[in-house]
Amino acid sequence: MVTRLGADVWWYDLRGVNAYLVDDGGTLTLVDTGNPWNGRDLILGLSDLDHSLQDIERVLMTHYDFDHVGGLGRLHGLDATVYAGAADAPLLTGQAKPPLSNHKGALQRALGVFLAESVLPVEPVSDGDEIGSFTVHHTPGHTPGHVAYVSEDRSAAFVGDLVRESGGELAPSPWVMSYDTNEVAESIRTLADRTGEFDIAAMGHGVPFRQRGSDRLAGLAASL
């Protein structure tokens, strides 16, 4: 169910999308929640690690997409604060809808009817905010409120769908799944420039890297 990536980081391979569990200095943190049908997988993974749903204290959302926020509404009994980028947070609570004027926004709007609005507190986060050991980096392009969470203490970067792994390499989020691919490229370059060295590169799709994550991100940035 779960695979250890580092001393305090575990990977949920949810068959097509990833979520992550982090012991952040004693604060159990879930990063993204997969599809609506992945709720049971998340709970079973916690059980494998001798944890329960009630042990999770925070949920970090990299962005609002069906396959990243869908599992949240199926985690019945979860009592945690949810964090999401400022532009995506209102979509989680139902206070706003994705724009129909953008091809990706129209897809989000169509799939959103199958998502439950969050009943948990949702805290908007902005570039430079700190949550435990995580620093928030605003990385728009895939969605307007997309963020990455980088923990120097855990030597890990949780980059959502800014990039994906394909054939052992990193690739940018493609046009069909992005609001703006020019912003995607700029966000990749900015994130690579602003972050120090880290080992674990934990993306939303593909196989995460356990080593030299920052080098791989820098390599991709240099190629854009």
Distance between the termini: 35 Å
User: Main β-sheet: number of strands, strand sense, barrel status?
Assistant: 7 strands, mixed
Mean pLDDT: 96
- State the helicity in percent bands: 10-25%
- Classification by helices and strands: alpha/beta
CATH homologous superfamily classification: Ribonuclease Z/Hydroxyacylglutathione hydrolase-like
Main sheet strand line-up: 1-2-3-4-5-6-7
If classified by CATH, what would the architecture be? 4-Layer Sandwich
- The helix count comes to 6
Q: Cα-atom Rg, whole angstroms?
A: 16 Å
Topology (SSEs and partners):
Blueprint: E1 2-6, E2 9-13, E3 18-24, E4 27-31, H1 39-48, E5 56-60, H2 66-69, E6 81-85, H3 89-93, H4 103-112, E7 122-125, E8 130-131, E9 134-138, E10 147-151, E11 156-160, E12 163-166, E13 169-172, H5 181-194, E14 200-203, H6 213-223
Parallel strand pairs: 4-5, 5-6, 6-7, 11-14
Antiparallel strand pairs: 1-2, 2-3, 3-4, 8-9, 9-10, 10-11, 12-13
Helix pairs in contact: 5-6
Keyphrases for this structure?
single chain; 224 residues; alpha/beta; Metallo-beta-lactamase, Chain A; five-stranded mixed sheet
Can you describe what's shown?
The protein is α/β, with parallel strands linked by helices. Helix content is about 25%, strand content about 30%. It has a single domain, classed as Ribonuclease Z/Hydroxyacylglutathione hydrolase-like (Metallo-beta-lactamase, Chain A, 4-Layer Sandwich), CATH 3.60.15. The chain has helices at about 40-50, 65-70, 90-95, 105-110, 180-195, 215-224; strands at about 1-5, 10-15, 20-25, 25-30, 55-60, 80-85, 120-125, 130, 135-140, 145-150, 155-160, 165, 170, 200-205. Strand 2 (about 10-15) and strand 3 form a beta hairpin. The longest helix has 14 residues, at about 180-195. The N and C termini lie far apart (about 35 Å). The model has no long low-confidence stretch (mean pLDDT about 95).
